[in-house]
């Protein structure tokens, strides 16, 4: 069987969103153990012009849902368009996003590479062919926000590593 648009999006986004939920849980444990206000970490960023950590989680969840959801023609859950104020909320957002992605079937997503994907961004309508959307926009943004959240937490000494970032892997 050939590698498909479904294979490139649904299991990948579900796995990474699950990993992000675990990472959010570990960040909460770190804050509790070290008596750090969660808001201090959630508002942290690596550089002043970046989104804060809470927004990194929010964007990761949004891209994780929207990338395969748009291919399937299924609207993602309407998550609050505000940053989470606790790691428990960020974890739940990632878990809910992963649960949504896991409902998408191969039949819904296959053929999405040839669809015109349209969405609003910054008050402007954006359009891309499905395969270009996945390769040039959806997955690169998804991984960017996941990686940036991971990097902020590592920078602040949260005990997470590459295996946490990857999530469960099917080793042979």
Q: Overall mean pLDDT score?
A: 95
Backbone structural class: mainly alpha
β-strand number? 2
Largest sheet: 2 strands, antiparallel
- Please tell me what the overall shape is: globular
Helix content: 55-70%
Span between termini: 19 Å
User: Nearest-angstrom radius of gyration?
Assistant: 16 Å
| Helical run tally | 7
Beta-strand content bin: 5-15%
Model description:
- The protein is mainly alpha-helical.
- Helices cover 62% and strands 7% of the residues.
- The chain contains seven helices and two strands, in the order H-H-H-H-H-E-E-H-H.
- The protein has helices at 5-34, 38-42, 53-72, 87-103, 106-109, 130-155, 162-166, and strands at residues 116-121, 124-129.
- A two-stranded antiparallel sheet has the order 1-2.
- The mean pLDDT is 95.
Short description:
The protein has helices at residues 5-34, 38-42, 53-72, 87-103, 106-109, 130-155, 162-166, and strands at residues 116-121, 124-129. By secondary structure, the chain is mainly alpha-helical.
What is the strand and helix layout of this fold?
Elements: H1 5-34, H2 38-42, H3 53-72, H4 87-103, H5 106-109, E1 116-121, E2 124-129, H6 130-155, H7 162-166
Antiparallel strand pairs: 1-2
Helix pairs in contact: 1-3, 1-4, 1-6, 3-4, 3-6
Which structural traits does this protein have?
two-stranded antiparallel sheet, 62% helix, mainly alpha, 172 residues, single chain, 7 helices
């Amino acid at each position: 069987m050939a590698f498909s648009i479904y294979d490139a999006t649904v299991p990948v986004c579900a796995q990474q969103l699950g990993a992000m939920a675990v990472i959010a849980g570990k960040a909460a444990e770190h804050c509790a153990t070290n008596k750090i206000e969660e808001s201090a970490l959630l508002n942290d960023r690596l550089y002043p012009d970046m989104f804060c950590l809470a927004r990194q989680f929010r964007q990761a969840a949004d891209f994780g849902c929207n990338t395969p959801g748009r291919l399937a023609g299924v609207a993602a859950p309407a998550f609050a368009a505000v940053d989470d104020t606790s790691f428990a909320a960020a974890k739940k957002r990632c878990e809910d996003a992963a649960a949504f992605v896991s409902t998408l079937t191969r039949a819904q997503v296959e053929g999405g590479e040839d669809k015109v994907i349209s969405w609003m961004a910054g008050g402007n309508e954006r359009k891309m062919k499905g395969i270009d959307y996945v390769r040039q926009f959806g997955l690169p943004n998804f991984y960017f926000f996941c990686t940036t959240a991971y990097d902020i937490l590592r920078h602040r000494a949260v005990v997470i590593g590459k295996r946490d970032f990857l999530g469960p892997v099917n080793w042979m």
